[in-house]
Amino acid sequence: MNDISFLAVAVPSISILVLMLVLFLPRLRRRRAKTQGMITSTSDASLSDKILMRMWSLFGDGDADEKLFASLEEALIFADAGIPFTSDAMANVRGEKSAHDVRKKLAAYMSSVFPNRISSDLASPEVVIVVGVNGVGKTTTIAKLAASKIASGKKVLLVAADTFRAAAVEQLKTWAARLSCDILSQDSGADPASVVFDGVEKARAKGYDAVIIDTAGRLHTKQNLMEELKKICRVAGKAMPGAPHEKLIVLDATVGTNGLSQARQFHDAIGLTGAIVTKMDGTAKGGIVFAVAKELRIPISHIGVGEGMNDLRPFDSIKFVESILEG
Q1: Which of 129, 186, 269, 297 is the most exposed place for a label (fewest CB within 10 A)?
Q2: CA distance 236 to 300
Q3: Which residues, 6+ apart, have CB-to-CB distance to 227 below 8 Å?
Q4: Backbone angles phi, psi at 248, to 5 degrees
Q5: Are the beta carbons of 312 and 148 closer than 8 angstroms?
Q6: In this structure, are strands 312-314 and 300-304 parallel, antiparallel, or unpaired?
């Protein structure tokens, strides 16, 4: 009897599921094919496929109507571009009469929110401190930054100031060996600020062009750890006046608006000079770059679009916006 009761319930449910698949699967396939057909062959195609992908179908040759504006607003919010950015973007385009003019006005506004970066290349050595919460790919990002500088002919010193985890030091040593660059480290449990001081002094004495400092991943809500980060920056300045020249935060694009909260806390603590946004190839939530630029006025330094060493790219706001809106 129990078996019969189970079948009485299960069979109709399974039938409904099969019916839904029959009805909706072709529709999903058509939508996917349409989206893939819009992808260009540019290097930013993967970003175009992920970030604000709904926008492609919004802009045509027709008139701008409320349906267009509503869909555009939804796409921006869905991508975690943030309420302030979305509100201002919509206010900028609502007076336009055609979809073409909306796209043109939106592109101009999107590009305008990104503050210009101030180059620190003239400093010798250039001291770069990289910060962020646990699990964002900070150490790997540092290796990619180092690889980029080495490729341009610079002599790079890595500094392992994450002394809380022995594994972090070993990971950075592995990267240093692969890149054939030098690394300064101390024993596990050493004072991170002391490691930074020694690293900057060595770089000055030995003629390095750049120092990239790996710091311990820390929760942005832990005040004691943020105070330690302030100390590290102060000590770097004692070892070399004006250092650190760059204070970069690594953000994971897939965490959405939580990344904005992280950036805000670190910015309040040490005054960030830039943000590196990783995993942009694996999310439709990449609008965080707009939120960070708009609300915190922090330049976007680089974006990560893959696992390879060449997949950390200097951020170009014009090309980035074009890759989103042109498709």
Answers
A1: 297
A2: 23
A3: none
A4: -105, 135
A5: yes
A6: antiparallel
Question: Which run of H or E residues covers position 251?
Answer: strand 246-252
Let me know how long the chain is.
Answer: 327
> Among the ranges 32-36, 54-58, 89-93, 305-309, which has the highest mean pLDDT value?
89-93
Going across the sheet that includes 182-184, the strands are 182-184, 156-160, 210-214, 126-131, 246-252, 274-278, 300-304, 312-314
Angle at alpha carbon of residue 315, lines to 122 and 114, rounded to 5°: 95
Would you say 213 and 196 are in contact if contact means Cβ atoms under 8 Å apart? yes
**pLDDT tens for each residue of 66-91:** 988 998 998 888 888 989 999 999 99
Phi-psi region of 218 (alpha: psi -120 to 50; beta: other; left: phi over 0): beta
Which helix or strand (DSSP H or E) is residue 187 part of?
Answer: none
Q: How far apart are CA 93 and CA 309, in angstroms?
A: 39
Distance, CA of 66 to CA of 70 (rounded, Å): 6
Cβ-Cβ contacts under 8 Å for 256 (sequence gap 6 or more): 80, 285, 288
Dig out the tokens for 170 from the structure: 């070993």
8-state DSSP, 63 = B
pTM score over 0.90: no
Residue 210: its H or E element: strand 210-214
The answer to whether the bond into 192 is cis (omega within 30° of 0) is: no
Question: Alpha-carbon distance 327 to 325, whole Å?
Answer: 6
- Tokens at 206, concatenated: 């030995």
Are residues 278 and 253 in contact, defined by beta-carbon separation less than 8 angstroms? yes
The token duo for 46 is 């993967």
H/E segment holding residue 213:
strand 210-214
Residues 184-237: pLDDT tens digits? 999 888 999 999 999 999 999 999 999 999 998 877 567 888 899 999 999 999
Query: Can you count the helices (H) and strands (E) in the chain?
Result: 12, 8
**Secondary structure class of 127 (helix, strand, coil):** strand
